[in-house]
């Protein structure tokens, strides 16, 4: 088992930070700040920090993009950043969005615009094989959700979005490794789980299996997992 040690704060001064991503050269880091989105519309923002590659600290942090509602997660590919916003302060239902910003030569986020809207609690977002995947809820009463995959075109826009896998309960995040997807679910905040799925050639997900805090043989009890 691998453990973490020598942990220390590398940057501070953020406002309800949730998502973290790096440019492809690891020169800059981006942090989503939900800020006071619960009381003020479009008050979320993205911070940019320079990465000190000698100490791994984040330096010269400043605001690089504003005007987001609950910016939850962020991911980058080439010269584009994608931000998931699951809802607005006025409604938790069908008010989520996926935005794209261009990354300029100074690492700043520019020309930000919504690509997808009217999404339902789209918290998780990740990129794999030039496809963008995001989580969402399809039934607010039961918490049933799904993962959607969209092809990323040359200009950074999204095309041919389709359901990659369904029948997941409250999926909130997704990451990829070695042709597998790892999905965090959190049914009723009682049984957090991590599912592992195969990534198919058509960029759908299958053969999903998982373990949770309710598994009697699981050594680690999960509680309200957000990141992975």
Automatic annotation (TrEMBL):
Top-level taxon: Bacteria
Name of protein: DUF5050 domain-containing protein
